[in-house]
Amino acid sequence: MNTPIYDFVRGYAESDAARLHMPGHKGTPVLGPEPLDLTEIPGADVLYHAEGIILESEENAARLFGSQRTVYSAEGSSLCIRAMLYLGMQYAKRQGRDPLVLAARNAHSTFLTAAGLLDLEIRWLYGDGLLTCDLSPETLDAELTASGACLVYITSPDYLGHVANVKALSEICHRHHALLLVDNAHGAYLRFLSESRHPMDLGADLCCDSAHKTLPVLTGGAYLHFGKSCPRELVDAAHRAMGLFASTSPSYLILQSLDLANRALSEDWPQRLCKTADRLDQLKSQLLADGWTLFGDEPVKLTLCPKRRGYTGEELAAILQAQNLWCEFADPDFIVFMFSPNTKAEDFERLEAALSAIPVRTPITETPPSMPRPERVMPIRQALLSACESLPLERCLGRILAAPTVSCPPAVPILTCGERIDVNALKMLRYYGAETCDVVCQEKILDSGSK
């Protein structure tokens, strides 16, 4: 497959051109990649008005992913999530319907802040825990019937490796004339398994992929995909939606990386992916035989539940880090490892040896607090943009959350802006290590209430 962006930039870098334009480094190597770091000069195309080499590369990606259209992001899936919600809002308005979003509660904080900026109303769909929301088709059908919503938003795969039944959920959405929006940030690779499990092949209307999370792409590279069933007017608005939130100075290093990934994905990368999944299956089987408890069903993600072995996720992560084995994420209950075709064979072996050497201790029986369902007392946008103050947790009971208390990873808010902090919320905040919250200033609430 051709690589038009990379070829143009490489040709320019080798042309001995006088760079009388941005960036200020003028192609002089300091870190190393500066000669290949360009701005949108003539011939380099313009990312969110693409008509030349970027459009050609995006069309290559669309063919690879089986989408109606694919557009690039040099600012991760966060940009794509904002664009998806904007397009969903446009769809609702065209339908003459309220832009109400039914959203699984384990959404990334970007979804929350984007909904606040766009002043969207959210109706949350809850699961059993903070990071996973196993939404059944029956539940979704009932919620759509009751609400009349025309937008549904899910995260799949989630941070722990649970993959939703996108096909069944998409069928329910389309029966209700609703769009299914999928945060597939962790699942770009799903298209390239021996049998695709990618949302584009399972009926999603819009989805984002963080290419950098699982594909051979630099950090920040991502895709916004439009499914075959997505209304054409939304497809035509793709670049307008992205440009509304994006920088006008995209990284050409990231764009080249996305461009080169097309060639890798069209060659032997899928075969290497399948070998990686097979190797991880072997590791999972061995860990199960050794008494470890696993979670999730992602083919290239390993999630352990170490409390049954007598360790918290953070404790286990520290033990492994001391051996220079670094996980993706750890919290009190889980530890997550991510693999790819670029994972070395010896790294599989090192992890297996390290885990097999960890002695069994008395199981930890403490479980996470139940997921709070706090009262919403203020619209998300109003709370997000209100004057706020940061207070220690013990002074937050009864106050209104202004900004989500969250770390990345996993960037899943325990509470959302505009919700009242109750006893259950405080328990969960303490459990996950929060010490302070940003809350709406009370005098501002009184001022607004007196008008």
Task: Give a brief description.
The protein has 451 residues and is of the alpha/beta class. 38% of the residues lie in helices and 13% in strands. The strands form 3 sheets. The chain has a 7-stranded mixed β-sheet, with helices on both faces.
Explain what you see:
With 451 residues, the chain is an alpha/beta fold. 38% of the residues lie in helices and 13% in strands. The chain contains 16 helices and 14 strands. The strands form 3 sheets. A 7-stranded mixed sheet has the order 1-7-6-5-4-2-3, with helices on both faces. A 4-stranded antiparallel sheet has the order 8-9-11-10. A 3-stranded antiparallel sheet has the order 12-14-13. The mean pLDDT is 94.
Strand order of the largest sheet: 1-7-6-5-4-2-3
Strand content: 5-15%
The amount of helix comes to 25-40%
Tell me, rounded to a whole number, the average pLDDT. 94
Low-confidence stretches: none
Q: How many individual β-strands? A: 14
- One letter per element, helices H and strands E, the order comes to HHEHEHEHEHEEHEHHHHEEHEEHHEEHEH
Summed up, the helix count is: 16
Helix and strand content put the structural class at: alpha/beta
In angstroms, what is the radius of gyration?
Answer: 23 Å
Give the biggest sheet. 7 strands, mixed
Characteristic terms for this protein:
single chain; 451 residues; alpha/beta; 7-stranded mixed beta sheet; 4-stranded antiparallel beta sheet; 14 strands
Strand and helix layout:
Elements: H1 4-13, H2 53-65, E1 69-73, H3 76-95, E2 100-104, H4 109-118, E3 121-125, H5 137-147, E4 151-155, H6 166-175, E5 179-183, E6 206-209, H7 211-214, E7 222-226, H8 232-236, H9 238-245, H10 252-266, H11 269-289, E8 294-295, E9 301-304, H12 313-321, E10 329-330, E11 335-338, H13 345-356, H14 380-384, E12 388-392, E13 401-403, H15 423-431, E14 436-440, H16 442-450
Parallel strand pairs: 2-3, 2-4, 4-5, 5-6
Antiparallel strand pairs: 1-7, 6-7, 8-9, 9-11, 10-11, 12-14, 13-14
